């Protein structure tokens, strides 16, 4: 569902464990208030909340946000339709997310290897 062609304008997700709402906003091309709203609308989106109720998103959250963004902005789904699409294809999407994470990690490791070879 998250097609590379549709999200080519979005930056690569850095190899960090946690991201702030501002970082996710920049990575996904969505304003922070939209992210907070989507948390209420999509049960799959649950960032970790720490001191002061600050949100910390993980890589799988960023990928999920990009999928939601793609459904809403590029494919024309409504919030309810996107929610239904994500819940009906949950298992398939987990496989897609995992494969994307693996591809991202492989490319990052190749970069590290090329740096170490210098």
Describe the protein in words:
It contains 5 helices and 2 strands; from the N terminus they run ααββααα. It is mostly helical and 118 residues long. The chain has a single domain, classed as Multidrug-efflux Transporter Regulator, Chain: A, Domain 2 (Orthogonal Bundle). It has a two-stranded antiparallel ribbon with strand order 1-2. A hairpin with a 3-residue loop joins strand 1 and strand 2. The N and C termini lie far apart (37 Å). 17% of the residues are buried. The N terminus is likely disordered.
Strands, total number: 2
Count, helices: 5
Largest sheet: 2 strands, antiparallel
First-last Cα distance: 37 Å
What's this entry about, in short?
Helix content is 61%, strand content 5%. It has helices spanning 21-28, 32-41, 59-74, 79-88, 90-117, and strands at residues 48-50, 54-56.
């Amino acid at each position: 569902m998250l097609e590379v062609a549709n999200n080519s304008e979005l930056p690569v997700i850095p190899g960090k464990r946690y991201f702030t709402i501002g970082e996710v906003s920049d990575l996904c091309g969505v304003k922070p208030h939209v992210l907070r709203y989507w948390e209420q609308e999509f049960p799959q989106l649950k960032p970790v909340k720490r001191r002061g109720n600050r949100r910390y998103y993980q890589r799988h959250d960023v990928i999920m946000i990009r999928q939601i963004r793609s459904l809403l902005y590029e494919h024309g789904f409504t919030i309810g339709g996107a929610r239904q699409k994500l819940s009906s294809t949950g298992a398939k999407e987990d496989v897609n997310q995992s494969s994307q994470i693996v591809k991202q990690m492989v490319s990052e490791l190749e970069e590290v290897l090329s740096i170490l070879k210098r």
